[in-house]
Design goal:
Residues 47-129 form the Methyltransferase type domain. By secondary structure, this protein is α/β, with parallel strands linked by helices. The chain has a domain at 2-24 and 41-141: Rossmann fold, CATH 3.40.50.150. Helices cover 34% and strands 21% of the residues. It has helices at 2-24, 30-37, 70-79, 114-127, 146-151; strands at 44-48, 62-67, 83-86, 101-105, 135-139, 153-154, 162-166, 173-177. The longest helix has 23 residues, at 2-24. The radius of gyration is 16 Å and the shape is globular.
Length: 178
Protein backbone atom coordinates (compact mmCIF):
# COMPACT_ATOMS: atom_id res chain seq x y z
CA UNK A 1 0.00 0.00 0.00
CA UNK A 2 2.67 2.52 1.04
CA UNK A 3 4.85 1.71 -1.97
CA UNK A 4 1.92 2.15 -4.35
CA UNK A 5 0.97 5.42 -2.68
CA UNK A 6 4.54 6.77 -2.88
CA UNK A 7 4.87 5.58 -6.47
CA UNK A 8 1.75 7.50 -7.52
CA UNK A 9 2.15 10.64 -5.43
CA UNK A 10 5.94 11.02 -5.39
CA UNK A 11 7.76 9.23 -8.20
CA UNK A 12 5.10 9.80 -10.86
CA UNK A 13 4.73 13.45 -9.86
CA UNK A 14 8.47 14.03 -10.08
CA UNK A 15 8.56 12.33 -13.47
CA UNK A 16 5.85 14.74 -14.68
CA UNK A 17 7.43 17.90 -13.24
CA UNK A 18 11.08 16.96 -13.89
CA UNK A 19 11.75 19.50 -16.63
CA UNK A 20 10.19 22.35 -14.64
CA UNK A 21 12.08 21.17 -11.54
CA UNK A 22 15.36 21.15 -13.45
CA UNK A 23 14.89 24.70 -14.71
CA UNK A 24 13.83 26.13 -11.34
CA UNK A 25 16.27 24.28 -9.07
CA UNK A 26 19.67 24.68 -10.62
CA UNK A 27 22.07 25.38 -7.74
CA UNK A 28 22.62 24.11 -4.21
CA UNK A 29 21.26 25.92 -1.19
CA UNK A 30 23.90 28.11 0.53
CA UNK A 31 23.94 25.83 3.58
CA UNK A 32 24.56 22.81 1.35
CA UNK A 33 27.45 24.60 -0.37
CA UNK A 34 28.94 25.52 3.01
CA UNK A 35 28.76 21.87 4.08
CA UNK A 36 30.37 20.68 0.84
CA UNK A 37 33.23 23.18 1.19
CA UNK A 38 34.33 21.34 4.34
CA UNK A 39 34.66 17.99 2.59
CA UNK A 40 38.26 16.85 1.91
CA UNK A 41 39.47 16.40 -1.67
CA UNK A 42 39.10 12.92 -3.16
CA UNK A 43 36.17 12.06 -0.88
CA UNK A 44 33.41 9.80 -2.16
CA UNK A 45 30.08 11.66 -2.06
CA UNK A 46 26.66 10.18 -2.76
CA UNK A 47 23.41 12.08 -2.84
CA UNK A 48 20.40 9.88 -2.15
CA UNK A 49 17.51 11.57 -3.92
CA UNK A 50 19.85 13.54 -6.19
CA UNK A 51 17.11 14.83 -8.50
CA UNK A 52 18.80 16.74 -11.30
CA UNK A 53 22.21 16.55 -9.61
CA UNK A 54 22.36 20.20 -8.59
CA UNK A 55 24.14 19.44 -5.29
CA UNK A 56 26.92 17.34 -6.79
CA UNK A 57 29.09 20.30 -7.74
CA UNK A 58 32.55 19.52 -6.38
CA UNK A 59 35.04 18.61 -9.11
CA UNK A 60 37.78 17.38 -6.76
CA UNK A 61 35.71 14.54 -5.27
CA UNK A 62 33.93 11.49 -6.67
CA UNK A 63 30.24 12.42 -7.01
CA UNK A 64 27.50 9.83 -7.37
CA UNK A 65 23.74 10.18 -7.20
CA UNK A 66 20.65 8.03 -7.02
CA UNK A 67 16.98 8.82 -7.35
CA UNK A 68 13.72 7.00 -8.04
CA UNK A 69 12.67 9.32 -10.88
CA UNK A 70 13.88 8.37 -14.35
CA UNK A 71 13.09 11.84 -15.64
CA UNK A 72 15.12 13.66 -12.98
CA UNK A 73 17.99 11.21 -13.51
CA UNK A 74 17.95 12.14 -17.19
CA UNK A 75 18.84 15.72 -16.22
CA UNK A 76 21.43 14.58 -13.67
CA UNK A 77 23.23 12.31 -16.12
CA UNK A 78 22.92 14.26 -19.37
CA UNK A 79 22.87 17.91 -18.34
CA UNK A 80 25.18 17.70 -15.33
CA UNK A 81 27.20 14.58 -16.23
CA UNK A 82 26.56 13.01 -12.82
CA UNK A 83 27.20 9.29 -12.39
CA UNK A 84 23.80 8.15 -11.12
CA UNK A 85 21.50 5.14 -10.82
CA UNK A 86 17.80 4.64 -10.26
CA UNK A 87 16.92 3.05 -6.94
CA UNK A 88 14.68 3.30 -3.92
CA UNK A 89 16.08 5.00 -0.80
CA UNK A 90 14.73 2.13 1.30
CA UNK A 91 16.88 -0.47 -0.49
CA UNK A 92 20.10 1.24 -1.54
CA UNK A 93 22.27 -0.95 -3.81
CA UNK A 94 25.55 -0.09 -2.07
CA UNK A 95 27.82 -1.90 0.36
CA UNK A 96 27.86 -1.03 4.05
CA UNK A 97 30.32 1.72 5.02
CA UNK A 98 31.03 2.63 1.39
CA UNK A 99 30.60 6.44 1.20
CA UNK A 100 32.57 9.19 2.94
CA UNK A 101 29.72 11.68 2.60
CA UNK A 102 26.00 11.02 2.25
CA UNK A 103 23.62 13.82 1.25
CA UNK A 104 19.86 13.40 1.50
CA UNK A 105 18.06 16.67 0.98
CA UNK A 106 14.26 16.84 1.14
CA UNK A 107 13.79 13.10 0.61
CA UNK A 108 12.66 11.34 3.79
CA UNK A 109 9.52 13.45 4.23
CA UNK A 110 8.21 11.86 1.01
CA UNK A 111 7.97 8.46 2.71
CA UNK A 112 4.46 7.73 3.87
CA UNK A 113 4.99 6.41 7.40
CA UNK A 114 7.27 6.89 10.38
CA UNK A 115 8.47 3.29 9.97
CA UNK A 116 9.47 3.90 6.34
CA UNK A 117 11.20 7.18 7.24
CA UNK A 118 13.19 5.37 9.93
CA UNK A 119 14.09 2.63 7.44
CA UNK A 120 15.29 5.31 4.99
CA UNK A 121 17.43 6.93 7.68
CA UNK A 122 18.90 3.55 8.61
CA UNK A 123 19.87 2.98 4.97
CA UNK A 124 21.67 6.34 4.86
CA UNK A 125 23.62 5.46 8.00
CA UNK A 126 24.35 1.93 6.72
CA UNK A 127 26.18 3.16 3.60
CA UNK A 128 28.08 5.92 5.44
CA UNK A 129 31.68 5.03 6.22
CA UNK A 130 32.32 4.18 9.83
CA UNK A 131 35.58 6.11 10.03
CA UNK A 132 35.75 9.52 11.64
CA UNK A 133 35.57 11.26 8.25
CA UNK A 134 32.03 10.05 7.52
CA UNK A 135 29.52 12.90 7.27
CA UNK A 136 25.78 12.90 6.69
CA UNK A 137 23.84 15.97 5.56
CA UNK A 138 20.12 15.41 6.04
CA UNK A 139 17.32 17.90 5.42
CA UNK A 140 13.63 17.16 5.90
CA UNK A 141 10.63 19.44 5.50
CA UNK A 142 9.75 21.26 8.69
CA UNK A 143 6.52 20.16 10.34
CA UNK A 144 6.08 23.79 11.29
CA UNK A 145 5.23 24.86 7.72
CA UNK A 146 1.61 25.69 8.50
CA UNK A 147 1.22 27.43 5.14
CA UNK A 148 1.71 24.10 3.36
CA UNK A 149 -0.56 22.24 5.75
CA UNK A 150 -3.34 24.77 5.13
CA UNK A 151 -2.90 24.57 1.31
CA UNK A 152 -2.66 20.79 1.25
CA UNK A 153 -5.29 18.09 1.35
CA UNK A 154 -5.35 15.99 4.49
CA UNK A 155 -5.14 12.26 4.04
CA UNK A 156 -7.90 10.12 5.48
CA UNK A 157 -6.96 8.19 8.63
CA UNK A 158 -3.52 9.75 8.79
CA UNK A 159 -1.27 11.67 11.08
CA UNK A 160 -2.59 15.27 11.21
CA UNK A 161 0.67 16.49 9.68
CA UNK A 162 0.49 14.23 6.62
CA UNK A 163 -0.87 16.18 3.69
CA UNK A 164 -0.81 16.18 -0.09
CA UNK A 165 0.69 19.47 -1.23
CA UNK A 166 -0.16 20.73 -4.73
CA UNK A 167 2.71 21.32 -7.11
CA UNK A 168 1.93 24.81 -8.42
CA UNK A 169 2.97 24.07 -11.99
CA UNK A 170 0.20 21.62 -12.83
CA UNK A 171 -1.82 21.10 -9.64
CA UNK A 172 -0.98 17.37 -9.47
CA UNK A 173 -0.67 16.43 -5.82
CA UNK A 174 2.57 15.31 -4.27
CA UNK A 175 2.80 13.53 -0.93
CA UNK A 176 4.72 15.41 1.72
CA UNK A 177 4.95 14.66 5.43
CA UNK A 178 4.74 17.87 7.45
Amino acid sequence: MAETFEDEYVREVYDVIAEHWHHTRFRPWPSTLAFLEGIPKHSMIIEVGCGNGRNLVRHDVYNHGCDNSWELLYFATTKRAVDAVMCDCLRLPYRDNSWDVVLSIAVLHHLSSAERRLQGLQELVRILTGNRLGKLLLYVRSHERQDLIVKGSRLLNSDPQEVLVPWNWNQKYQYVKH
